[in-house]
Every structure is written in C-alpha cells, then in structure tokens.
C-alpha cells in the first residue's frame, strides 16, 4: 500500500508531510524548500508555473498570477469575501452562475482547478522525493470552512489525481501533531498567526474525536503587518537622522524590506540587532548615506504591541462562544511563523496561565498533523511495532568514579552495545562491573542498578587485560550486562529489570538535575581525567625506570624523581591546573627515558616483544566506538582473600537472581 | 490421569486450530512489519548517504549566503562614486578588495547569476518591479539588478532580484 500524503493547503504557503518509520516527516519540494508558495501562474511564454517560480515572476505578470485562491474556493459570488477580493486582487475574478472563476489570459479556471495545480505540484514533488506513487491524501482546511468549501477542496484533490481520504480542520491537525487527541476530555486552544491571517480555535477531545467548539479570527492580520510596521518605523527614523525619505526609492525599499524581515527574525533569539545597509542612498552629487541602526527587542515589541493586543479580542470571543473559561483550557498550541516571536509566546502564556506548546515547527505543525492522521488511516507500522526508547543513559563506573555511558538516553530499544575496558592496576585479577543509570558525569550522582565481579583474570600489567562489557536491552527494557575476559573467555553477567523502576517524575528530575549540574559535573570529570592521566604517567615512568635500571643517568633519574614526587604531591589535592602543570613537567623530563628506551630497542631488535610490553604501559587508552578501543575501568584491585569471598557471594547473588526470574 | 489428558486434548483441538490460524496471522503481520521496518531503515541509510554527500557539497551554503550580501554592498557603493574620487588610488585599492572577494567566491564554487541584458527567467530571477522600456523588442529583458543572485556548484542558492522591462 502506498503512503498517504498529509497536505496543509495554505492561503500563502503549502506544506506536505508523510509518516515514515512511525514518525511524521516534512517533505521538501523539488526546489529543496519545506514550504511551497500557493501561487499559480501562466508565464508570458505560456508555461504553467506553480510555487516559487510563479511568485518570482508575479510582478511582471500580475493579471495571470493567481495567489490566495483559498479565499475564493467553494464560495458564492455574493459572498462579502469574494466581493472584497474582486476589488483587491490584481487578477480577474468572474461570476460563474452562483460561483466564481478566475481568468488567466483568455482561459477561465475554477478555484478548484487552481488549487489542484498546487496539489499536483506537491504530489509530483513528493513522488520524486519518495520514489513511489502517491494516490491518496489528507488535506487540511480552516475550521470555519463550510460544506461547500470542504467539498471544493476535496474536488481540487480529485482533479490533481488524489483520492482525498479525509479533510481535517487545521487546528485539529495541530493538536494531532502534538498527540493531544489521545488525552480524553482535554480542552485545547489553537492560536494560529500566519503570514496574512489570524485564526483561533477551541477544541475538545472526546472519545476518539476532536471537536471544534468554536472558532474566530481576523482574515487580514498576520506577520506581514508586523514587517510593515517595522519598515515604516525605520523609514521615519532614517528621515529624522539623515533628512532623506527613502520610501520613494524602490531600490532602497527593497533592501529595507529584506533587512526588516531579517531583523524581526533575529530579534526572536537576541535582545538587540543591527541593521546595516551601507550606501542605502548613493548620489554622486548629494553624497552617500548609510542606514546603520540598532533595534532592540523592546523597541520592536513596543511597535507591534497593538497588533498583538488585537489578537486577543478574537481569542476572548472564541472562548465565550465555546462556553469555556480560560481556566478550563488544558493545552495551548501555537501555529504560524509569527508565533516564534517571544512576546507572543509570553502574552499567550500570561493570558491562559500556562506555557503554550511550541516544540513542533509552527510553519509545519499543520502538515505534520495531517501526516499523523494519514498514518492512522493507512494503519502505519507503528501500531504493530511500538518501539520504546530508554529514558536515561546506561553505563558503568570507570576509574576515578566516572560514569562511562554505553547506551545513551533516547536510544530506541531493543539494542546492544559492547566496549572493551581494561584494568587500573598491575596484576589485578578481578574487576567489578558497577552498572549505573543517569545523565550525570560522576557515578555517585547517578542511580546504581547493580554490580558484579568478574574474577580469575590472569595477572598482567595494568591496561593489558581486555574485558569486553556488553549491554543488551530487549524490547521490554530488561537489561543484560555481560563482562567477558578476552584472554580466558571467562564471563559473568547480571540481569536487571529495575531500569524501568523509575517513575516519570523521577526520570524528569534526573534529567533536570543533569542539566543544572552540567558544568560542575564536567569540572569534576575533567579533574578525574587529569588525575588519571597523571597517575598513568607516574606508573609508566616508574615502570620504565625499573626496566632500564642503571642505564639511566643518575642526574637524569634524580630530575625525574623530583618531578614525580611533585606530581604525586599535587595529585593528593584538587587543583586541576597544578596537576596538569606537574604532569607536563614530568612528561618532559621522562621523554629522556623514552629516547633511551628507543635506543635500547634498536640495539635489542630481537627482543622486540619485551619493549612492546612496556609501550602498552605508556600509551593512554581512550574510549570510543571502535570495538578494540580500551578504556581504563575502575576495576579496583581486590586482595586475594577478600576477592574470592566476594566473588562467591556475587556469583551466588547472580545465580539467585537468575533463579528467581 | 490418562483420561483427563485425553479429555483435555479433545476440547482443545478446535481451539488449537483457531490458535494456529491466529498465530499464522500474527506471524504474517509481524513479518510484514519487520520487512517494512527493514525497508524504512535501508531507505534511511540511502537518504543519509545522500544527505552527507550534499552536506559536503553545499555545506558552505549558509556562509556563502551571508557573505553574498557584501557583493551587493560593493555594487551599491560603486554605483555612485563621487567625481573627485574617480581616479583616486585609494578607491582603486578598495576595488582591488572587491576583485579579490569575488575571486574567493569563485574559488569556492560560487557563480554570480547574469542579469542586466538577459531575458527574465523565473528560475534564476525574481522580478521586483516592471519598468517602461525605450525601444521595441526589449520587453521581458532585465534592465537593472537590485540584488545579485548566486549559484553554488551549479545549484541556485539565491535568485537575483531584478527590474524587468514592460
């Protein structure tokens, strides 16, 4: 079965999305854009243009460029909206019995036919992108569309070669995109401030349906008005500063338009921006003038305050019509590019007393919702195979109490991951695997899930044994951790079911904590890493010294010993910079032995193997994805008698665990 | 004991058949789901590869777009050079900077879209104004460039804004 396309057929722009692997995904058009202008034209050479191409030539071809046809679709000639457009639109709108038609050249088209051209383009572009035929679609319409307008939209789909499986309301689609349809008895407000229109709807979710309780809006209020106000203000300011009116200069106005839009967007993320348009006026006689102006977010907010305020009249009315009060509303969804403005988010939040949902791109949320509906209709694979993700990262404790993550949070399960670790001390015969969960850098701040000991490692210098630790989580979230010594193939494992033992609140808290403590944790971890590096260097230096014995020059040895002692001293403290410095100094001093060792190696070419062994000591292993990377784990050396007792205990515990399952 | 077992078997048999059919159906359903998942995954892999290729080829797109405004700024500046500066060495220096800048862009795979004198093409140009022409047969030709357009490795990343003769 082919995929069903979700289409947001907008007044100014259209957008499309599909379900892929259980997730909605916006599809780019042929030009590589995520939205397509809802404009159709017949160019002067007779070519039919849809989208960006049509928009670019609109100025040269106003009579044959049809935009905002959504304002006409399914309407009657007598409708006030139609009569208004007849006066406003540069193209010809004709009466066709009770209905309307538009004229391009000497041909007449119904609004459905024009809309069909847009749908046709979306369909073709989607087919090209996906490499499969698309024959079905879900199309969204404004909540206030009547039966005639809905039927006309459906017809447009049919003309475009699409079977329209369902027509859904735009606010409903927005709610679907957020999955609010699953929340029974919720009341939702959708605040949609697009480029040219403002719509507000009140929805109520009941058994499997989303009902539009009321809708209101302003068909001529949108982001374009915000731009206009800013442009007018800049022109006035420039006049005050330089005494020149640039509103009469078309070139300057074009530049100003782009600059104002850019400034508006920048002010959504920063508090201040600078408009810098050099040579905005450049007359060889009058001299050059530059438009360089700082604009603060506060200034922009002051300028558009009235526009924002104007949206709350319709909001109030919609609430009243729905018979609900502000307090009854459970969720508020923002739709439309202009709602990215922080002031709008803030005002909406103030009005309803709750944070609006803004996570889904407001330009795409309607199309995404249409795709979600399409997914339900096509019975997407999601229903068969519901895959979970792990909410918190899982890992083990490594040298210095660092939590080394093996599986990161939000990884889809089932999954498994292996990494090779090594010992932290010479002749360490057992290692302890401490399994932890959480986002913090240090083990003590995370949740301990369990621990076990792998014993019977053959005695070897630190860093030599290779212990492969494997985490395996099945679809039910049950975690199996296995440690295997690669040399002896001895292995030990633990099965943990408690990874699901945390409540949603606890998980949220742990995630928040990690964010709050991120910088402190990083510092702690860095300190441990620096300490580990220092300790490794001391170890390898001592080993090298003892290997070389009296071949090292006495003076050299004394120098190294001094540096080594200095490093040991600072290692006892917590001063990261001091440790770093001491490590560097010892490293410099011990390079001399390196040179000597190298010489020795060349001399004893036959005994290469011996030299290699001491090399392992000096190389510092790092963690990584590559299977063969070795990480120093916090495998504390266990004294022989303690170890054996513990091992038995642990093994017993493990067995008990397994038996009890 | 034997009897009880037999009895149980008898009553179970229709259920067993039912269970078997159900299991068969489930099996087919799961297989389909699995295949779909595998297909989705393979498609994702292909798409990811394409994305990586394109990211390498067009990775500089954002940076080029930001820098491209300077092409316009140079043009705006040199559009009205004061008479007394026309032959100044200082101006020539600045013009050399412009030449260097354009050369750098070219080296990065940037091509400036041709405008004035060309026939308007909606794929390359955006018309911002229509102006009256002087001679016949000029209709549809570009008379002035308002903002330059650019191609990066053959792909149009910004179309030129132009004035077109009526």
UniProtKB/TrEMBL annotation, chain A:
SUPFAM superfamilies: Actin-like ATPase domain, Heat shock protein 70kD (HSP70), C-terminal subdomain, Heat shock protein 70kD (HSP70), peptide-binding domain. Pfam families: HSP70 (PF00012). The gene is dnaK. Keywords: ATP-binding, Chaperone, Nucleotide-binding, Phosphoprotein, Stress response. Acts as a chaperone. InterPro entries: ATPase_NBD (IPR043129), Chaperone_DnaK (IPR012725), Heat_shock_70_CS (IPR018181), HSP70_C_sf (IPR029048), HSP70_peptide-bd_sf (IPR029047), Hsp_70_fam (IPR013126). NCBIfam families: PRK00290.1, PRK05183.1, prok_dnaK. The modification Phosphothreonine is found at residue 197. The keyword Phosphoprotein applies. GO terms for molecular function: ATP binding; ATP-dependent protein folding chaperone; unfolded protein binding. This is Chaperone protein DnaK. Belongs to the heat shock protein 70 family. Residues 601-615, 622-661 have a biased composition (Basic and acidic residues). Induction: By stress conditions e.g. heat shock. Residues 592-661 are annotated as: Disordered. HAMAP family: DnaK. Signal peptide: none annotated.
UniProtKB/TrEMBL annotation, chain B:
It comes from the Bacteria. GO terms for molecular function: adenyl-nucleotide exchange factor activity; protein homodimerization activity; protein-folding chaperone binding; unfolded protein binding. PROSITE patterns: GRPE. GO terms for biological process: protein folding. One of its GO terms (cellular component) is cytoplasm. SUPFAM superfamilies: Coiled-coil domain of nucleotide exchange factor GrpE (SSF58014), Head domain of nucleotide exchange factor GrpE (SSF51064). It is found in: Cytoplasm. Keywords: Chaperone, Cytoplasm, Stress response. Participates actively in the response to hyperosmotic and heat shock by preventing the aggregation of stress-denatured proteins, in association with DnaK and GrpE. It is the nucleotide exchange factor for DnaK and may function as a thermosensor. Unfolded proteins bind initially to DnaJ; upon interaction with the DnaJ-bound protein, DnaK hydrolyzes its bound ATP, resulting in the formation of a stable complex. GrpE releases ADP from DnaK; ATP binding to DnaK triggers the release of the substrate protein, thus completing the reaction cycle. HAMAP family: GrpE. Belongs to the GrpE family. Homodimer. This is Protein GrpE. It comes from Candidatus Kerfeldbacteria bacterium RIFOXYB2_FULL_38_14.
């Amino acid at each position: 079965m082919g995929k069903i396309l979700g289409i947001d057929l907008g007044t100014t722009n259209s957008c499309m999305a599909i379900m892929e692997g259980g997730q909605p995904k916006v599809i780019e058009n042929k030009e590589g854009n995520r939205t397509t202008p809802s404009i159709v034209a017949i160019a002067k050479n007779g070519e039919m243009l849809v989208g960006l191409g049509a928009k670019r030539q609109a100025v040269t071809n106003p009579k044959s460029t049809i935009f905002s046809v959504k304002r006409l679709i399914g309407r009657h000639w007598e409708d006030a909206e139609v009569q208004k457009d007849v006066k406003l639109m540069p193209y010809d709108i004709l009466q066709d019995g009770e209905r309307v038609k538009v004229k391009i050249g000497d041909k007449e088209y119904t609004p459905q036919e024009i809309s069909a051209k847009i749908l046709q383009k979306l369909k073709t572009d989607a087919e090209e992108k996906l490499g499969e035929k698309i024959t079905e679609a879900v199309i969204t319409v404004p909540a206030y569309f009547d039966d005639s307008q809905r039927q006309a939209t459906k017809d447009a789909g049919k003309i475009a070669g699409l079977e329209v499986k369902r027509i859904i309301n735009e606010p409903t689609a927005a709610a679907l995109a957020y999955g609010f349809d699953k929340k029974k008895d919720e009341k939702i407000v959708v605040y949609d401030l697009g480029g040219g229109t403002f719509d507000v709807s009140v929805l109520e979710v009941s058994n499997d349906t989303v009902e539009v309780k009321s809708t209101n809006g302003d068909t001529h209020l949108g982001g374009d008005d915000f731009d206009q106000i800013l442009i007018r203000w800049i022109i006035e300011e420039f006049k005050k500063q330089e005494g020149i009116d640039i509103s009469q200069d078309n070139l300057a106005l074009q530049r100003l338009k782009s600059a104002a839009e850019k400034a508006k967007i920048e002010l959504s993320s920063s508090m201040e921006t600078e408009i810098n348009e050099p040579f905005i006026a450049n007359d060889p006689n009058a001299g050059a003038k530059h438009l360089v102006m700082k604009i603060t977010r506060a200034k922009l907010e002051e300028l558009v305050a009235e526009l924002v305020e104007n949206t709350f009249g319709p909001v109030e009315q919609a609430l009243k019509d729905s018979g609900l009060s502000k307090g009854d509303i459970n969720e508020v969804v923002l739709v439309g590019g202009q709602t990215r403005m922080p002031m709008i988010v803030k005002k909406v939040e103030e009005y309803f007393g709750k944070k609006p949902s803004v996570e889904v791109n407001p330009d795409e949320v309607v199309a995404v919702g249409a795709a979600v509906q399409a997914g339900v209709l096509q019975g997407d694979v999601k229903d068969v195979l519901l895959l979970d993700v792990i909410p918190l990262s899982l890992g083990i404790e490594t040298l210095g109490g660092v939590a080394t993550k093996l599986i990161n949070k939000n990884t889809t399960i089932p999954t498994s991951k292996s990494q090779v670790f090594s010992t932290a001390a010479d002749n360490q015969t057992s290692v302890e695997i401490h399994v932890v969960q959480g986002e913090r850098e240090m083990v003590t701040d995370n949740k301990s899930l369990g621990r076990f000991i792998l014993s019977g490692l053959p005695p070897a210098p630190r860093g030599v044994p290779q212990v492969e630790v494997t985490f395996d989580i099945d679809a039910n979230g049950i975690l199996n951790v296995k440690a295997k010594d690669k040399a002896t193939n001895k292995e030990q494992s633990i099965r943990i079911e408690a990874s699901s033992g945390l409540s949603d609140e606890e998980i949220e808290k742990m995630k928040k904590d990690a964010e709050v403590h991120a910088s402190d944790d990083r510092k702690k971890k860095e300190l441990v890493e620096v300490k580990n590096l220092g300790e490794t260097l001391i170890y390898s230096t001592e080993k090298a010294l003892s290997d070389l014995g009296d071949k090292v020059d006495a003076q050299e040895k004394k120098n190294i010993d001094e540096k080594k002692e200095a490093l040991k001293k600072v290692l006892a403290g917590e001063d990261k910079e001091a440790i770093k410095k001491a490590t560097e100094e010892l490293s410099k001093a011990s390079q001399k032995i390196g040179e000597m060792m190298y010489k020795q190696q060349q001399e004893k070419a036959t005994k290469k193997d011996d030299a290699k062994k001491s090399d392992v000591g000096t190389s510092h292993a790092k963690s990584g994805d590559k299977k063969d990377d070795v990480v120093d784990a916090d495998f504390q050396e266990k004294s022989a008698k303690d170890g054996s007792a513990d091992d038995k205990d642990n093994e017993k515990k493990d067995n008990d665990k397994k038996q009890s399952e | 004991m034997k009897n009880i077992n037999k009895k149980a078997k008898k009553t179970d048999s229709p259920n067993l058949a039912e269970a078997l059919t159900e299991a068969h159906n489930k099996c087919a359903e799961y297989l389909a789901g699995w295949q779909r998942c595998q297909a989705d995954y393979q498609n994702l892999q292909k798409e990811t590869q394409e994305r990586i290729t394109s990211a390498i080829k067009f990775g500089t797109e954002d940076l080029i777009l930001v820098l491209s405004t300077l092409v316009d700024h140079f043009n705006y500046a040199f559009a009205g050079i004061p008479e007394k500066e026309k032959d100044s060495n200082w101006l020539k220096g600045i013009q050399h900077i412009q030449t260097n800048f354009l050369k750098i862009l070219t080296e990065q795979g940037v091509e400036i879209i041709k405008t004035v004198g060309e026939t308007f093409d909606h794929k390359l140009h955006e018309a911002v104004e229509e102006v009256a022409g002087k001679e016949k047969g000029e209709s549809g030709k570009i008379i002035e460039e308002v903002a330059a357009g650019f191609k990066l490795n053959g792909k149009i990343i910004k179309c030129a804004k132009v004035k077109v003769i009526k």
